[in-house]
Amino acid sequence: MYGKLEDVHFYCINLLWGKTLYQPLRFVLVKMGPTHSILVSTKLDLAPETIIRLYSYRFRIETMFRELKQQIGGFAYRFWTKSLAKLSHFRKKTDPSPLASIKTEKERRNILRAVRAIEMYALVASIAMGLVQAVSLKCKASLVGMYRW
User: Fold this and answer.
1) What is the helix (H) or strand (E) element at residue 103, kind and residue range?
2) Radius of gyration of the chain (CA)
3) Domain ranges of the chain
4) Model pLDDT for residues 36-92, shown as the tens digit of each residue
């Protein structure tokens, strides 16, 4: 972990889990130093070591999303259309879907264009972040000397 070898102890067990519809899950109980964790997978054929390794990637992915959001502004888009109905966090399952109010082909096209703009904005921000990381890795030695305090 983080370029160092760590002793990891684990116990793996498959259990049925749920309230009414039970689902088989693979639980991996992990002890690494003073830290205890319980990892869960729906793939019962994954080796416990693989599950532990895959969960370790989670932190890299979360760090990447934080940088994409805070440094690059990858989710700071402001694309909207009047054709898109307002969504409510408090909508009941019995209420009609907001998308049911879309009547015309023009409204449908406007919504698709807004969604496409949002997707393209996030994609371009992701590419920009990758370029910034590539440049920083390539020029790391010259940047370190430049910012000495």
Assistant:
1) none
2) 23
3) 1-70, 73-149
4) 999 999 999 999 999 998 888 888 788 888 888 888 888 787 767 777 777 777 878
